[in-house]
């Protein structure tokens, strides 16, 4: 599932992420990382905040600078403009990946594959692209954020002398990224299963309304009638 999910991520990346916004965020984050790098080098030369050895200060400066760039990159919007129809009272709405799929469609994204029923075929084919776009947007924002926090946690262990258990939570979030990629692969598996499923039968024509046998008017009898 990971390989299939990564393939979907690369294929549908342009559908979810605006390349122009992505490049702008990358340039700004690179500039921010460079400024932080210069500032940390100056602070190290003046105050020696990262220690007196050669290896530890170098690692600290590189890790903190990289974390700053990743955090800045995560803060910038990179998603494509929403569909004009995806608005509520004129306000753009981007559904979460769990809300993008209807309730009958979500069981097909489970770990164990299951055949798509013909009645759910159109719903799966409609909802899967929405779920995939929402997942790619979330991965593009959550990934740099998780990596940046993890680098700060590693820096705290190397330079600050913190115990590794006290900063382990900063690395835990990184392990959520492979799970998102596998979920992306399961959505594609459901889409392929829906394409292979037979089309639902056409609805039978609605029966015609029977002719009224009683005359129109009130059915209440008055005294003497």
Short overview:
The chain crosses the membrane at residues 25-47, 59-76, 142-162, 168-185. Residues 196-225 are annotated as: Disordered. The protein has 225 residues and is mostly helical.
Secondary structure blueprint with pairings:
Blueprint: H1 2-11, H2 13-16, H3 19-47, H4 55-75, E1 87-88, E2 91-92, H5 97-100, H6 121-158, H7 169-172, H8 176-196
Antiparallel strand pairs: 1-2
Helix pairs in contact: 1-8, 3-4, 4-6, 6-8
Give the overall average pLDDT. 81
- Strands, count: 2
Query: What is the percent of helical residues?
Result: 55-70%
**Which descriptor suits the 3D outline?**
elongated
In spatial order, strands of the major sheet run 1-2
Briefly note the structural class of the backbone: mainly alpha
Helix/strand order, N-terminal first = HHHHEEHHHH
Descriptive notes:
Helix 1 (2-11) crosses helix 8, helix 3 packs antiparallel against helix 4 and helix 6 (121-158) packs antiparallel against helix 8 (176-196). The protein contains 8 helices and 2 strands, in the order H-H-H-H-E-E-H-H-H-H. Mean pLDDT is 81; it is low at 204-214. It has one domain (2-80, 95-196). It has helices spanning 2-11, 13-16, 19-47, 55-75, 97-100, 121-158, 169-172, 176-196; strands at 87-88, 91-92. The protein has a two-stranded antiparallel ribbon with strand order 1-2. The chain has 225 residues and is mainly alpha-helical. A hairpin with a 2-residue loop joins strand 1 (87-88) and strand 2 (91-92). The chain crosses the membrane at residues 25-47, 59-76, 142-162, 168-185. Residues 212-225 have a biased composition (Basic and acidic residues). Keywords: Membrane, Transmembrane, Transmembrane helix. Residues 196-225 are annotated as: Disordered. Residues 196-208 have a biased composition (Low complexity).
């Amino acid at each position: 599932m990971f390989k299939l999910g990564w393939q979907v991520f690369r294929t549908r990346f342009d559908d979810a992420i605006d390349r122009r916004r992505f490049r702008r965020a990358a340039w700004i984050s690179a500039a921010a990382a460079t400024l932080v790098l210069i500032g940390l080098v100056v602070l190290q030369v003046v105050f020696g905040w990262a220690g007196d050895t050669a290896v530890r200060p170098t690692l600290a400066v590189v890790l903190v600078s990289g974390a700053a760039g990743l955090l800045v990159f995560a803060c910038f919007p990179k998603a494509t403009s929403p569909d004009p129809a995806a608005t509520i009272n004129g306000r753009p709405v981007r559904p979460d990946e769990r809300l993008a799929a209807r309730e009958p469609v979500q069981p097909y994204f489970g770990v164990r594959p299951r055949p798509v029923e013909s009645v759910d075929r159109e719903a799966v084919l409609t909802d899967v692209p929405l779920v995939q776009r929402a997942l790619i947007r979330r991965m593009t924002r959550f990934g740099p954020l998780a990596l940046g926090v993890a680098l700060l946690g590693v820096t705290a262990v190397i330079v600050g002398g913190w115990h590794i258990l006290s900063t382990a939570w900063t690395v835990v979030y990184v392990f959520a990224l492979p799970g998102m990629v596998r979920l992306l692969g399961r959505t594609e598996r459901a889409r392929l299963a829906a394409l292979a499923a037979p089309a639902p039968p056409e609805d039978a024509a609605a029966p015609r309304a029977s002719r009224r046998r009683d005359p129109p008017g009130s059915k209440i009898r008055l005294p003497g009638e």
